[in-house]
Amino acid sequence: MKILDSNFLLKYFIIILLAVGGSYFIPPMQSPDENQHFAKAYLVSHGDMLLTSPEGLMSGGHVDDGLRDFIQGHMQLSGRPEIKLTQEEKDRLKSLEWSDAKSRSFMQIPGTGFYLPLIYLPHALAIKLGEMAQLSIHHTYYLTRIFVMAISIALTLFAFSIHRPGILALGILMLPMSIFQLLSPTLDGLTTSLSLIAISLFLSFQSKTHRHGAFYLLAFLLVLIATTRIHLAPLLLLLFIIAFQQRNRKFLALSLLSSGFTLFWIVFSIKTTVDNRIPRDISSLETLEYYLIHPMNFMEVLFSTVTNKDMMDFYLQSFIGKLGWLDTSLPLWQYAAFSACLVLFVLLNIFATAQNNSIARSSLFGTALLSVLAIFTALLISWTPHPATIVHGIQGRYFIVPSLLLAYAFNGMIDVKSRTLSFANQLLLSVFFAFSAYALLSALQSRYSIY
């Protein structure tokens, strides 16, 4: 498979230039939980892989005081559209330098305790390089943002070189929410790109004979994804499907090992992470046990949630683009326009050159549904006071990867080979991307005004 050809590099650098330009409009720490993710990446860069939980405090670690000041300074903007940083404050934050090893104090970052530290290695490497080069914290932050963004884009293009995506998958990736998260140094850009590679590798197994290395890579990626985004753990089923198709005992053993490690990490992280942001009388594991014993109660809460109009409107808007800390909305007409475009893409996605077989389609469809169910389950047991009436804490961006699974599953269900249709799809995507970029940048400019 030839990857690094001229077209690949040209596309890569064009996208990087556009991404770097777009990221200029986003101040630091403006993606949900970005403050915690960046602090955790700093800890990983210093070898602190696991969080600690001092008595009376939530889980966290000892973070450079200058970095804490940098984070807290920019967090003044989060959720407060009326606040603008003064030029004096911006200059002060830009001038912050890394402190010595003794100038570190404890910072509570419980939300990161559930993620396998390995996912933070790209962030940690960039932070370490910034420290070694004696860059300011401000410049180290932007080095990290660009580095993680560049890796995510490269991985996405690599996924596309393995298996060509349809118009719906590309449309989902071009939504303002998807682009915004890609431009922010959180985990969404990485996990989405890794998921695309995993999906593409799975589909390539349906039409080609691969060496064992491809399966090992897929297993590694799925463990990394599942231990970072617990609701995507159903993707591990793809390993068992390939093992069954190949009638390969080594593949089956690795599938069991991958699933076992993922289950171990999920239980370990839940039991060792102290997270009291949502007051609860019982633990997450006890809540899970309750709903396993009372499945009808779970179904009632789930039904109440998905039939709640306000919740469904929020899911749709935060799937398309509710930016910042969910404090930057698009105009209502844009949500309607994006929704109409997605419906059109769903139809066009069905009429394409057939690429997938029935087993592949049903596998992706099934894992997508299980992932959606896992989203509601995870937030019910971890972010919703018990007893519950509806599930709290779900954001539309959580459905991006399940939506991509569905997009790949239904791509080319009706085999149509037409150059005219292909040209029309490319034209539509170009217009859609321009519209999405306009919606994103205009919303950011209005919200932050280059902060």
Task: List the SSEs and their pairings.
Layout lengths: L5 H18 L10 H12 L14 E5 H10 L12 H8 L9 E5 L12 H12 L4 H26 L4 H7 L2 H8 L4 H18 L6 H15 L10 H10 L2 H24 L11 H10 L1 H12 L2 H12 L1 E2 L4 E2 L2 H19 E2 L5 H25 L17 H11 L3 E2 L3 H30 L3
Parallel strand pairs: 5-6
Antiparallel strand pairs: 1-2, 3-4
Shape: globular
Order of helices and strands: HHEHHEHHHHHHHHHHHEEHEHHEH
Mean pLDDT: 92
Helical stretch count?
Answer: 19
Count of individual domains: 1
In short:
This protein has 451 residues and is mostly helical. It has helices at 6-23, 34-45, 65-74, 87-94, 121-132, 137-162, 167-173, 176-183, 188-205, 212-226, 237-246, 249-272, 284-293, 295-306, 309-320, 332-350, 358-382, 400-410, 419-448; strands at residues 60-64, 104-108, 322-323, 328-329, 351-352, 414-415. Helices cover 64% and strands 4% of the residues.
